[in-house]
Each structure stands twice: as C-alpha cells, then as structure tokens.
Amino acid sequence: MIELEGLTKRFGVKTAVDNLSFQVRPGVVTGFLGPNGAGKSTTMRMMLDLDNPTSGTVRIDGKHYRDLPEPLKYIGALLDAKAMNGGRSAYNNLLCLAQSNRIPRSRVSEVLDLVGLTAVANKKSKGFSLGMGQRLGIASALLGDPEILMFDEPVNGLDPEGILWIRNLMKGLAAEGRTIFVSSHLMSEMALTAEHLVVIGQGKLLADLSMADFIQQNSRSYVRMRSPQQERLKDVLHEAGIDAISVPATGTLEIDGVEAERLGELAAQHQIVLHELSPQRASLEEAFMRMTADSVEYHAHAPGAGGVPPVPGMAADNPARPADVPAWGAGFEAQRKGGK
C-alpha cells in the first residue's frame, strides 16, 4: 500500500502539490489523473524520494522509500524510460539494478523475456526505439517481483500489441493482490485499465473514488428513444409523468432519471414500436474534462482564436503560410464553374 498524508511541495512561490492525502490500495489498478501541470509527476517523484516534500509524508508499506533495505523488492517504478544508460546493453542495465538489490541474475533473463526483449538483450539501449525503451523500463520495474508497481505513461511509444499486453499485465498483477498505480493522459486506455481513480488539479485532490462513481458523478446519463410513433410515445411518457427532450437533429427523445427497462416496458404496454432504446453514459474523457475544467493551467488556442493574435504577416488560419499567399485550392470551385 502507498499512503500519502498532507503531502506538499513548493518550488519558490509555486505550489506544485498542495496538502495531498490519499491511499493506493492493493488488489486494484488505481489511475492517477490530472491536467498538465497538476503535480502528478512531482507527486510520483516524492513517493520515491527523488524530490523532498516541503511538508507531509509518503509511506510504502509503512516505511519511507529511503528506509527500504532493497527497494526494488518492495516497489518497482517506471517514471522515465530514458533514464537507462544508453551505452550499456539491455541485459547489463538490468543486471546492474539486480546486483544493487541482491536480485538473482536469472531474474534479468526472466523479465527480458516477459517484456519481449530477449532477442535484443545484448544490444545497447541507446539504439532502441521509443517502444523498446519503454519495454526496458517496464522490465526494470518488474525486476524485483515487487508487491507495488508504479507506472507513469506506461503505453507511451508502444504498438497496439504492446498496449494490450501492458494493460493485461497490470490487470493480472492487481488480480494477484498487488498494488498498481498508473498515471496516463490516454483516457480511453485508462477507462479500460483502471478500477479506481485519484484525480488532482493544481496540486489539490479533486476525487478519490471508483471509476464507475467518478463517471456517474461528473457526467449526464440518460436514455435515448426513437420510434416511428414518436408523438404517441411522447404522449405516453407525459401521461406517466416522465419528461422527454426532443432532439430534432437525430429524431430521438432523451429521458433523464428513468431506467431503460421501465421505458421499454411502458412502450410495450402501449404497443409502441421502438427502433432505439439505449442508455447513454459519458466517457471517462467527458467526465474528466467536466471535473477538471477549472483546474486546467495551460489552454491551447487555434491561431487567431481565443484572444491569441495571429503571427504578423502570416495567415490567420495557418501560421506557416504568408498572408498574401492564397490557401491551397482557394478559388477552385469558382474556376470550375467559370470553365463550364
């Protein structure tokens, strides 16, 4: 288990982490989310004693990381896959880590095979692709067969097969009762992997709850109905005291706060044909955007939009094109019609 209590980190006048307290429990994959600049990386570095907190404390199985006699046997972490020595082979990078924590040499070959790098074990890591480097970093985290694993953007650079592999690996390790803590900006992947979420914004804790509860509390859920007898359906719903919102663009009705089962049974009782009866729930991304809307520190804008002026002398729609050069294809339709 990882326990944070009142964790605070200031860099001069900037407070990166602000009185953060939560627990990462065993047996589930816990996702760690937040906008850019929220303090996620700083928090993870303080967990490993790479940064000293201004105040507060972090404990790994009841101890500070620096007090663990052979830390790789307690917690494995991937924070930066590029931290490996590029002049050493994949095998020797892992062997150095193994020897520093009295891990058997045989374990090096095991984790290389596990992450799919056996064929390049003797090649220098500086020649590795981004995905291969990521696999080597994951291997280093797994080296001590720890009960706690912490990953920062573990799917970065991985191909689809690798993404599926690391997803199933994390789920499998959690099913064994291990503590898995993972940070990522890929909401679609986090939705498939994490069961519990810790969300921070501007260094402060915003949420600490299950994935299902997070989405439910931070998004709108409704039922969509579509029928060739739409007006009669609206009358039946109205008579039952159910409010329905018409959506002309899709020809559907949207109903809040009523289970799809009840709506389907109601339509059946009145012999109304339904072409659609579907519960609609927001994605993790939508719920996350709603939760963190007031905590986003860095906002991007389209050129010339949102109060950001275009580059002088360049086109407003494309800062790489001079303003006096027409866009590609400009006037094509008029020329085509004129040629007829």
Mind sketching the topology for me?
Blueprint: E1 2-11, E2 14-24, E3 29-33, H1 40-47, E4 55-60, E5 75-78, H2 90-100, H3 106-115, H4 130-142, E6 148-152, H5 160-175, E7 179-183, H6 187-193, E8 196-201, E9 204-210, H7 211-217, E10 222-226, H8 230-239, E11 245-247, E12 252-256, H9 260-269, E13 276-280, H10 284-291, E14 314-315, E15 318-322, H11 332-338
Parallel strand pairs: 3-7, 3-8, 5-6, 6-7
Antiparallel strand pairs: 1-2, 1-4, 8-9, 10-12, 10-13, 11-12, 14-15
Helix pairs in contact: 2-3, 3-4, 7-10
What would you call the shape? elongated
Give the termini separation: 75 Å
Strand order of the largest sheet: 5-6-7-3-8-9
Order of helices and strands: EEEHEEHHHEHEHEEHEHEEHEHEEH
How many beta-strand segments?
A: 15
Structural class: alpha/beta
Average of per-residue pLDDT values: 85
Major beta-sheet overview = 6 strands, mixed
Identify the quaternary structure here. single chain
**Spans where pLDDT lies below 50 across 5 or more residues:** none
Question: Radius of gyration from the CA trace?
Answer: 27 Å
